[in-house]
Amino acid sequence: MPAADLILASGSAVRARLLANAGVRFRIEASGVDESAVKAAAGEDVSPAEIALRLAAAKARAISEKHGDALVVGADQMLECEGKLFDKPAHMAAAAANLRQFSGRTHRLITACCLMRDGGTVWESVETARLTMRDLSDGEIGAYLSAAGEDVLGSVGCYRLEELGVQLFSEIDGDFFVILGLPLVALLARLREQGVRGL
Fold first, then answer.
1. 76 catalytically annotated
2. CATH assignment at residue 101
3. Which residues of the chain have pLDDT under 70?
4. Is residue 198 part of a domain?
5. Catalytic residue among 69, 76, 135, 138
6. Which of 56, 89, 138, 177 has its CA 20 to 30 A from that of 16?
7. What pTM was estimated for this model as a whole?
8. Which of 78-115 are b and which e, b meaning 16 or more Cβ less than 10 Å from the residue's Cβ?
9. What was the pLDDT predicted at 1?
């Protein structure tokens, strides 16, 4: 399948790198979906998994409806800690506050992914990983943020597990790719079924 027939509906550099490293040919087109509006429309009684799936589907649909027969990948991720949902921090002070809330606790990363063609769903998936953060002092949090820099603002958890962020954890239960924001093994299987191969 030509590269133009597979589109990643995301501005995420991590998701793009995962697909590219797997040898998949694709192009990127950010959806422009208003995530806050999708979350607000979901209401308070909707599970984090359903919100993540609605966001992933909204992103894929926005691109799929513009590109006919193209196969479109949409993905999104929610972070839940002790019943509270977290968004990406707006600034480093917010990142520090979030890390203080995660410190010594287990949080869940819920990753949703879908494939669409002609605005219709070909496949969808929701997977969850559980991560337990070490008890961190304010000094450790400050040192980590100074070393990691403002890149953490692009992560809902304020860390990149594939980099320095792995130092923050005492236990990790879940698929590595799901934690990074894309259920890559399952997605690649579905792409092969659709004729998209990396090998």
1. yes
2. 3.90.950.10
3. 1-4, 199
4. no
5. 76
6. 89
7. 0.91
8. bbbbeeeebebbeebeebbebbeebbeeebbbbbbbbb
9. 39
